[in-house]
Amino acid sequence: MFHAERMADFALGLRFDDLPDAVVETAVRVVADTLACAVGAIGEPGPAILRRYAIERGGRPEATLLGGEERVDLPLAALVNGALARDLDANDLYAAPPGRDAGHFSDAIPAVLAAAEAAGASGRELLTAVVVAYEIQAALSEAYRWMDRGLHSVSQVAWAVPAAAGRLLGLSREQIVSAIGLAGTTGGLILQSWLKPSLAIPMVKGGAPGFAGQAGLQAALLARAGFTAPPDALETLFDRLPSDADPTPFERLAPPYAFTTPRTMLKRYPAQIYTQAAVQAAVELHPEVGNVDDIAVATVYGHRGVAAGVQGSAAAYTPESRATADHSTPFVVAVALRDGDLTPASYQGEPWKDPALRDLMQRVDLVIDPAFERALVEEGRFGCRLVVEMLDGRRLEAMVEQQRGHPDNPLSRDELLAKMRGFTDPVLGDGAAERLLAAAEALPQATGVDALIAACRPA
């Protein structure tokens, strides 16, 4: 059996009643978290360009652009809303087994939500389709080393969306198989072209999930109309690339199901995943630090993801854009030490250009610690140690073994709500986060998704 056929069988066979409570709870939380991230990005330059483009192109009014009343065709809605959800780099990430690729599986949610809206699906049907998208992406991420082949993990979205959305849109097994093959053949390969230490991060980094979701929905619609594509596109791709492929994760897609959705990390802070522990440590030390002008040096001891690469590059010490700043360990640590928090508001007004903050960033040293490197590679722990040496001789230290938001150290409901407020309330007004979370938590009883979408607009 081809992998696309396994995906189709899973998509059509899974029922809401098959989902354990922990899976349903995770699905509700990731929907709320993702939509809050999307609301927070309304008005950001990249998504704003795509929104104008979608409104100009129009099409059939099938799905809503988040944050407003405009309705466009399904692929365009996936494009815009997918870009919104990813733009601020605060959406979730899969806690993959050590040595395997991860991925922001919530990148698929905007496309799935658009399909649910167009189909008049219930809340339970939406949540089940979200789980389909997450589980398929988990199998894809573990089966193949996408990043090692020059393919960004967001590629997985284009392979998963046809199955999850196809279920909602009434596609047959054969049509879903063709949709997966079509999306994979024509739009499912997102090159890893933007995370380079020597370059600023461009808009396509945030927009890529939108393009992947657009390709997935377009493929589903074409397959429903009778357009065919090969069932073995995934096998063909990795037969032609150097690969240590392991197909066994696809076996989880057949009963008895072994769900991975609860292994989802929710970011506490709007910053790249590897920097989360460093921000957490800096927030912890903020009360003891007092005036950051009195810091002699702040040293982050951690794995390569926080102390090297894009996060520790020369560009990270002199960011020129928000996208580069939220991947910069020196920037996010400096802000957290100064303010005691890191929120979307921390990026307003281009603070990375502030001479005083840039001076503080120059006093943030990054050291690769072999112990933290082993902990990440062998155990999947995203920890670090922050040591702040003050001019008065004091030495302050904070250790994070595993960041908040990891499934082994999950966010509480209050912490999730606090994060969401930072994204939704400045855009939609006070109480928006509570309304959105309540709408998501009501999905198991909801007859449709209109209330959820309405919670993404001003009250």
Automatic annotation (TrEMBL):
Keywords: Lyase. The keyword Lyase applies. Its EC number is 4.2.1.79. Residues 5-235 form the MmgE/PrpD N-terminal domain. Residues 269-443 form the MmgE/PrpD C-terminal domain. Pfam families: MmgE_PrpD_C, MmgE_PrpD_N. This is 2-methylcitrate dehydratase. Belongs to the PrpD family. It comes from the Bacteria.
